[in-house]
Design goal:
With 137 residues, the protein is of the alpha+beta class. It contains three helices and eight strands. 26% of the residues lie in helices and 40% in strands. The model has no long low-confidence stretch (mean pLDDT 95).
């Protein structure tokens, strides 16, 4: 890591830029701590969905992490929300996202809304397109 003094928020902004997220979403995060969640590349503010917003805030508090984006999808094993996070450990930050073109494998907490026992930390792969992201793996 180049600068050990950057904040979680600064790291999150760096990752949002790397994923080519729509500039007004990055601005909302930078200026007002607004986090965007994405449905098939389309973005919405998490605060528009109270249950999602509360889950995000409790996750941040429990693990002292920072959520910088969320994706949402329906799978054969449940409704999933993928919280892309910056951990509390700067030594891990260089490994939070691996990018190859428009594909980004990011460290995340995956919340299985239908079966919370299946929620866990891990990596998800998202594709960026048109200023948004969508989980593809």
């Amino acid at each position: 890591m180049k600068d050990k003094n950057i904040t979680k928020k600064e790291k999150a902004i760096e990752l949002l830029k790397r994923m080519d997220i729509y500039a007004p979403y990055i601005q909302g995060f930078r200026d007002s701590d607004k986090v965007c969640f994405f449905e098939n590349f389309g973005g919405y503010w998490t605060e528009q969905e109270p249950e999602l917003y509360e889950k995000m805030k409790s996750l941040e508090k429990k693990y002292n992490c920072l959520v910088y984006a969320v994706t949402h999808e329906f799978t054969e094993f449940g409704e999933l929300y993928d919280f892309l996070i910056v951990t509390d450990y700067p030594k891990e930050w260089d490994d939070l996202v691996y990018s190859q073109g428009s594909y980004h494998t990011a460290f995340a907490y995956v919340w299985n809304k239908d079966d919370d026992q299946c929620s866990e930390f891990g990596s998800v792969t998202v594709q960026s397109f048109g200023g948004g992201i969508k989980r593809i793996a």
